[in-house]
Amino acid sequence: MSKILSGAYGRPSGKAGGLVWGAGRTTQGKVSTIREYVIPNDPRTTDQLERRSIFSVAVGVARAVGSPIWQLPWNRSLGDLPGWQSFVGYCIKGIEKHDGDFRWTSPPNSKSLGPVYMPPMTASAEVPSSLELTWDKTLIGDHCALSDVLQGFITLQTAPDTPEKVQVISPGTAREDETYTFADLETSTPYFVCVWFRHAEESGAYTYSPCYVVIQTSGAAA
Question: Whole-model pTM?
């Protein structure tokens, strides 16, 4: 049964006869949608079940890293989709099933989140159980400042949705620091790293950089 909220001028939702009312997101905001009601087919093929499993892992990654990671930086990064759907969609494209395990692909997919300058970065593992990111603090372009904040996360390459193995960038690291270290990792283990910079515009809005993405093995035990 369909319903219309806020009287005759509200948005219809639900099912009416052979039609289903809903909502979609566009550049003009949310709009009402209508489609034919159909009973979905569920053949449960091998490929279909694998895609569902990858989707489940991608959702697990999104939940583990938390909304500050994807809510604003990833908003509209894939078409008009909000942050949650954009980030989950990115994870789905970057995760595969290999020998019965789910893992980030190698090489992984990168992604641009906006016009902010992303300097060349390197990841090294010279300290046991750690990964260190380093970059140059040179400023290029209008959307760039030494105070730009580093954001992002690290997960295991295999079983990336293991919540206790996920780390996000600690608050306070800026472009001017030129380095950031992920510590307390498993030794000699491949990790997936995805980081970017957030820039505060004069208008008060935030813009973001392309991602630096790498799969790097953590430092070996001494």
Answer: 0.83
